[in-house]
Amino acid sequence: MEKRIFFTCGGMQLAGLFHPGGEKGAVVTHPHPLYGGDMHNVVVEALVLAYQRKGFATLRFDFRGTGRSEGTHDNGVGEREDVLAALAFLAEKGVRRFDLAGYSFGAWVNARIGCPDLHRMIMVSPPVNFLDFGDVGPIPCLDLVVVGDDDDFAAADRVQRMTAAWNPDARCTVIPDTDHFYSGAIRELDDVLNKCI
């Protein structure tokens, strides 16, 4: 059962939903807040539930300026600090092995952090047609990328090429007949996540 919590990032209070677990934990980040994205997004929920089914502690949260989180949107710069603060919160709760998973904007923010003490990173629909991934270097902890084959914000062929550049050992799964929002395809996304987490 998730419980509502607040944690601190640079003097700001960020709102989240925390599910306790053991020494394995995952932070899950949400899509673009300026376009309605928040921690209650259905894809974020799919990621969280997939991790919880495998016994992970989970923390999903609203980026600064979103929902009940303090601060203002910072175009992905301050949001990186939000993610690091979320990982620190999990560490305070006894987590020792960390996963970082993000959808859309959240995947972009995570990619630009890299792998600070991470066991694994998962990206869902990194928006390579919408946001600039040019400053993203190798991501050795990247394990899985999922994308739909009808995604206007994350063209599948481009995502596949970039995944190979970020980490040639990472898996890139393309879900047929699926757009950026996984309309009618949440079950297919669940199947991929359940097999890979």
CATH hierarchy, class: Alpha Beta
Please give the order of strands in the largest beta sheet.
1-2-4-3-5-6-7-8
Q: Count all strands and give the number.
A: 8
The CATH architecture classification is 3-Layer(aba) Sandwich
The number of helical segments is: 5
State the separation between the terminal residues, measured CA to CA.
19 Å
**Overall pLDDT metric:** 97
Model regions low in confidence, pLDDT < 50 over at least 5 residues: none
Percent strand equals 25-35%
Please outline the major beta sheet: 8 strands, mixed
The CATH superfamily is known as Alpha/Beta hydrolase fold, catalytic domain
Secondary-structure-derived class: alpha/beta
Number of domains: 1
The CATH topology: Rossmann fold
Radius of gyration: 15 Å
- Helical residue percent band: 25-40%
Silhouette: globular
Order of helices and strands: EEEHEHEHEEHEH
Note down, in words, how this protein is organized.
It contains 5 helices and 8 strands. It is an alpha/beta fold. It has one domain: Rossmann fold (3-Layer(aba) Sandwich), CATH 3.40.50.1820. Strands 1-2-4-3-5-6-7-8 form an 8-stranded mixed β-sheet, sandwiched between helices. The longest helix has 15 residues, at 78-92. This is Alpha/beta hydrolase family protein. GO terms for molecular function: hydrolase activity.
